């Protein structure tokens, strides 16, 4: 039975409607609790990530603060799952636990017992600005500063205007046929590659990458002068920001939209996914309860949406309500595939993934642009072209998917967003060729992933972009017949040399059936 | 790795030589033989070159090298699944076998070179300390190494995945370099422990197997900040306990079979 209803933050009525007022009161109350209190605002944030330097530098940890006990840190903290097929189920449980604690606080303060967390649908036209309740220092009670406001929220242009640029986010992940993918150069899957316990990994699932990771960086940004990253920009501080929870409610909602948008969109049934990483020797998923107790859960408890006690007011897929076209399957000149063939193609599992080519050296990204060229293996490139050609004339022919990999991106700064273009001529202006844009990526988590003795062994993060349609279009005009494919990385804001942003290898993979 | 639900062909590719190596070790000599005139009591009184000549005679280098190679294959094969998978996935299809072979050459070369150091260290302990004391003495030093931050740093570097060139000679060179680098960190992390089985008066094979299991359990841990302290093999222990609990009647658990 659905007791709690999560609603669109932009459609709750006038400013400072009840859900936001009570949320603000609860945040204010929870922030007063000591860090050692499992139901405190900062304890809950530490579950996602914690780093002394970052917390101190962003005013979240003082010399008078006692850290939680070792036992509590080992049980609860440093737990968030990223670059993993556990990303979605873990965050669902995290948001559920948070919502229950906030609700209990709301009730304690005299509010409604059915309070539910709103979500921010930044993809909806006209709703890409942060809700006003988060954007002003003042709030109705007039005391102190609005608890929902943050001075560590700098926005895409680092000017504290929090407006998500529509061109930098997309919902292409919703067309991904399979939940689980692999970290082998091909599709990482809608939900992420199969891993063990993964507080941080290498390859993100498609939904985690877009829009999750990039929205984090677009909201958080960096301080314009000190260049310190905002809360949302860095996994170690992200959950300190009250907007984090509305963002993750939206990501959770998108998971359910994916589930409902095609019969083939199902969650994994493998025991090691359902039973969680504890079944393979990893840590279990543990959250505090409203009374300070412990709630252990597994993905098997998160996968049945109907069994959950909450729902969303809008689970309409983006577009018109009809299933969106699967990424990489639009056919030049042939129009849309009908629903039956589309589903058959979606259900074909791509088994074979292989490298088509790679650039010759590591790429340093500095300033306003970085260029490289992917050298293509003649035989493999020809095979990709032939399969694209065959698929154009035969709707039932297996069609390759093509992925651009920015491998092992490392750097000292998460507050960086790139637009990536392929197949541009030497003198072309990227702004004139939106059709050649492979996608936009945000370097959420790259800093920690770059540390040699960090949990990821210094591997950085690999970004995987589906560029099948671009390659198809290039092939049609003979632009895929050359030995090299130009790749251009265009940062949204100039990258400083001291940020040390590097891409170890830029490569192209094909994935076929 | 332990958590994958997918059938991994690498498990077969590495499993077969691993099993064969253990079988060969079970059937052959794998310890260091010291003649009666050698040993700590006589070491300082007997003419050292003569004692050492006899030690070498009883332990011909080619036999030692052969034993060492078998030991390296048996114990290290399970640890190189991840880097071989990385090479396979990130190389052109037509160059995969060559890449993995180059890696194996580099990796194996480092381990063969390390054999001289490991066996020499074991021989040194055996000559300098009384039987039983040599193993205990080496054990104390190995324990100190195990809890050191340097050991953790070496383990962390075993998880590094370097850039792999895609074409031609650079592809082979990068795979070879990967093997050499990975071998170097693997030797640094694992070799001290491998001295111990040679110093035991009996049960060499069982000791080797125990060390091999421990090294694997260490390797499946995630990288961690280097610091002094016993880091344990938490994942392996948790997995063992989880599987054991799964065999017990499940009351009120949310575990899916």
Question: Secondary-structure blueprint of this entry?
Answer:
The complex is a heterodimer of chains A (513) and B (257).
Chain A: E1 4-6, H1 18-32, H2 41-48, H3 52-57, H4 70-76, H5 87-108, E2 180-181, E3 192-193, H6 206-220, H7 243-261, H8 271-274, E4 285-288, E5 294-297, H9 299-302, E6 310-312, H10 339-347, E7 352-358, E8 363-365, E9 370-376, H11 378-393, E10 401-410, E11 417-422, E12 437-442, H12 446-449, E13 461-466, H13 468-476, E14 484-491, E15 501-512
Parallel strand pairs in A: 1-6, 2-3
Antiparallel strand pairs in A: 4-5, 7-9, 7-15, 8-15, 9-14, 10-13, 10-15, 11-12, 11-14
Chain B: H1 9-27, H2 40-43, H3 48-58, H4 61-76, H5 81-90, H6 96-128, H7 133-146, H8 149-157, H9 168-199, H10 204-219, H11 234-247
Helix pairs in contact in B: 1-4, 4-6, 4-10, 5-6, 6-7, 6-9, 7-9, 8-9, 9-10
How many domain units of chain A? 2
CATH architecture of the largest domain in chain A: Orthogonal Bundle
Estimate percent helicity of chain A.
Answer: 25-40%
Oligomer: heterodimer
Would you tell me which CATH topology of the largest domain in chain A applies? di-copper center containing domain from catechol oxidase
What would you say this structure looks like, in words?
The complex is a heterodimer of chains A (513) and B (257). Chain A has 13 helices and 15 strands. Chain A has 513 residues and is α+β, with helices and mostly antiparallel strands. Chain A has two domains: 4-343, Orthogonal Bundle (di-copper center containing domain from catechol oxidase), CATH 1.10.1280; 353-511, Jelly Rolls (Sandwich), CATH 2.60.120. In chain A, strands 7, 8, 9, 10, 11, 12, 13, 14 and 15 form a nine-stranded antiparallel beta sheet that branches. Chain A has a two-stranded parallel ribbon with strand order 1-6. In chain A, helix 5 crosses helix 7 and helix 6 runs antiparallel to helix 7. Chain A starts with a strand and ends with a strand. Chain B is mainly alpha-helical. Chain B is built from eleven helices and no strands. In chain B, helix 5 (81-90) packs antiparallel against helix 6 and helix 6 crosses helix 7. The longest helix of chain B has 33 residues, at 96-128. Chain B is globular, with a radius of gyration of 21 Å.
